[in-house]
Amino acid sequence: MSTTLSRQHSVYVTRNVPESGIQLLTSAGLKVTQWKHDAAVPREELLTNISQVDALFCLLTDKVDSELLDAAGGSLKVIGTMSVGHDHIDMEECKKRGIRVGFTPDVLTHATAELTVALLLATSRRLMEGVQAAKDGSWGTWKPTWLCGPSLQNSTVGILGFGRIGQQVAKNLGGFDVGKIIYTARTEVASCAQRVEFDELLLQSDFLIICCALTDSTKNLFDKNAFLKMKKSAILVNTSRGPVVNMDDLAEALENKEIAGAGLDVTVPEPIPLDHSLLKLNNCVVLPHIGSATNEARSAMSRLTAENIIAALNNQKMPAEL
Ligand code: DGY
């Protein structure tokens, strides 16, 4: 890929991101303007700053809609989102305006699948309660029936969404002597896991892991009715997008012991309000959307976002275009 642009183009970067991506942009001759903070750029500031830019380097927290595209104006040619999820981008509107969109698949697959297994184990093996007990003196003595949870061994693991991340989670579970892996997805995938209908996934899973994209058909998929179909001993894990799970229904299901536990890396909204009932439950582990947070993945995501932008500005094939 050529990295030299024919004329100086400009890019607006909406946050502090790993420097490797910024270096690629500047070495390609781009004029980079950046919101150099860890907090999100205020919307008004963003709308003002993107006026007449050629490219936008954004994150999953930046809503890319008609308002933003209007504010950017006719010069905007490409949007690179530093994420694999793209539900924050109005793709139809981008297509209509001829704006190309790049994203960051693959480079975060291992990091996210790793975190998914970590969250599953933290929830099922009650790690947060254990850490708390070690710190606050309630450990007491070794107790045969204390802080027990279900084993992965011989269990049925269900995965909703069997794309890159879902398949990698299944691979990661390879060493746990799981009894069976089942999945629900639009298409059949060649693997040793078995494809089942969504209701079967709910009924059979001891551990149910959500790895699907957020779409109209997955929004609120886990509601009261879904929880009632699940095993009372089931553990739910969500590392995809918060809105796939109805949070109030989940809190109720956990309180009423309709399911045994939940591990969430994603919530609605983010951050989860401090007074949310889910935060008061011992059988719910909430993480602050850190699925892809390895040094390696975040750096690769930053670079791939930059490469997508540079390629599009050169009228070339983008490494990962939506
Ligand atoms: C994504 O990329 O969509 C994740 O949610 C954050 O890395």
Automatic annotation (TrEMBL):
<dbReference type="GO" id="GO:0030267">
    <property type="term" value="F:glyoxylate reductase (NADPH) activity"/>
</dbReference>
<keyword id="KW-0560">Oxidoreductase</keyword>
<protein>
    <recommendedName>
        <fullName>Glyoxylate reductase/hydroxypyruvate reductase</fullName>
    </recommendedName>
</protein>
<feature type="domain" description="D-isomer specific 2-hydroxyacid dehydrogenase NAD-binding">
    <location>
        <begin position="117"/>
        <end position="291"/>
    </location>
</feature>
<comment type="similarity">
    <text>Belongs to the D-isomer specific 2-hydroxyacid dehydrogenase family.</text>
</comment>
<dbReference type="GO" id="GO:0008465">
    <property type="term" value="F:hydroxypyruvate reductase (NADH) activity"/>
</dbReference>
<dbReference type="GO" id="GO:0005829">
    <property type="term" value="C:cytosol"/>
</dbReference>
<dbReference type="GO" id="GO:0051287">
    <property type="term" value="F:NAD binding"/>
</dbReference>
<feature type="domain" description="D-isomer specific 2-hydroxyacid dehydrogenase catalytic">
    <location>
        <begin position="11"/>
        <end position="320"/>
    </location>
</feature>
